[in-house]
Amino acid sequence: MALAVGHLVAGLVSPLASPFLAVGNTAIDLTPHPVKDFAIRTFGENDKLVLLGGMAVVLAGLGVVAGLLSRRSPWPGTALAAVLGLVGIVAVLARPTTTTWGVIAPLASLVAGVAAFRWLWSRGQAQTPAPAEAPGRRKFLLSTAAIAAVAGVAAAGGQWLAGRVDVEASRRGITLRPGKKAPEIPFDADFAREGTPSFLTPNEKFYRVDTALTVPRLRAEDWRLRVHGMVDNEMLLTYDDLLRRPLVEKTITLVCVSNEVGGPYISTSNFIGVDLADLLREAGVRSGSDQLATRSVDGWTCGTPVDSIMAPGSNAMLALGMNGEPLPLERGFPVRMVVPGLYGYVSATKWLVDMELTTFDAFDPYWAQRKWAKKAPVKTMSRIDRPKSFERVPAGRFVAAGIAWAQHTGVDRVEVRVDGGPWQEATLSREVNVDTWRMWRIELDLKEGNHTVECRATDRKGYTQTNERAAPIPDGASGWHSMVFTSVAG
User: Fold this and answer.
1) Hey, which residues does 237 pair with through a beta bridge?
2) pLDDT at 163
3) pTM for this one?
4) Does 216 sit behind a cis peptide bond, omega within 30 degrees of 0 on the bond before it?
5) What's the CA dihedral at 86, 88, 92, 93 to 10 degrees?
6) How confident is the model over 84-139, as pLDDT tens digits?
7) Burial of 291 by CB count in 10 Å (0-12 exposed, 13-18 middle, 19+ buried)?
8) How far is CA 53 from CA 49, 56, 173, 208, in A?
9) Of all helices (H) and strands (E), which one includes residue 240?
10) pLDDT above 60 for 69
11) Which residue, 387, 384, 385, is CA-closest to 485?
12) What are the C-alpha distances in Å from 119 to residues 85, 154, 221?
């Protein structure tokens, strides 16, 4: 009841003020890095649903404890309900997006929780040790059902209110016409028939890793971007302002720092947007500014090296679209940032609403506060997509395939070896540009039995992917990817 009422009131004043969501976001912020990595690795994009479900189970357990402690007196349960309400208030106040009115939601939650417990306790005390059909028992069960029904209606109402902003209608009304389109993807840019991904990732399959428990709902008509800080000319831009600027389309691969060796968090898209370096030049970047601090509408912060954005050929952009359509909500609609060559946590702010030119000494963004690297260039890496782990394949001639990436530099070659034998050079797909992944394939002659295949990439600067294993924290994983599989007689 407490959670439902808080969610309902939050739907009226500010969806992000929901105590349930605020506590969940705070839990994400306080979760140790190894636990976060485990959640992302194990549950993928369902990690947030698992968190919310786990919170519900914990709260249900606390409800049982409250009942057991209050068989003689209502005060233990009342105190526990009040403490949980106070936790909700603190969590909401701690969120960077909390407004004055937003505090009403956790206050309502506290009152509703305490009142519901006290009422149910009084109804429970009214029953006698009579059979189940006794009036006292029936009244208690009816009261419980009434509380559950009201809570369900309140929760549904809060969810409806939170989603009443018709963002999809706003999105459908947008047509993006880039003046400069990305070159057509050549037919031999991937080896999809032999096990690699298709070169362009469909929008619905583009990886998603972020801290947002619920997807922010911001219409393009309501979107504003403030550009300020160490600039000569502060700017306040609308979505229409961006549409009036020259739109370009660029094919870019994005990689998440949470990607383990051989992990799935890498995707490629034709992004449509405006040149970010041009925008910053118009604002006038003052000498000494070395960090672009960006903020999402939900308060998440990111810090990007200014020199990475302003470098010739950086391809940094404010993206409005992906693969010919406006950004999907989950990918950052209305506007997100895209800076190739840097891991997403320092370059790819979604639901962007604020850009401040500052310094690395003056401001620590979200992940820097948690001891991740402030500058995180994407490492030269490769991955095996075929064979799959523990797959059984026919003995004899077999095609192994995968991907490699070395952004801003380009992949020069990929080598593969089986069972620790000599390295063999794989065939590379046609390169689209240096900011995208590149596919590889190789024909292997396999005897029957168990095998281990490994791969490594070398970029055009002559750097060969290291075999030294490193976890994603603090600046990205490293190591050779390997697969164990079995060759069997046809």
Assistant:
1) 225
2) 77
3) 0.86
4) no
5) 10
6) 999 999 988 888 777 788 889 999 999 999 999 998 888 887 655 555 556 677 88
7) buried
8) 6, 5, 35, 19
9) helix 239-244
10) yes
11) 387
12) 17, 18, 46
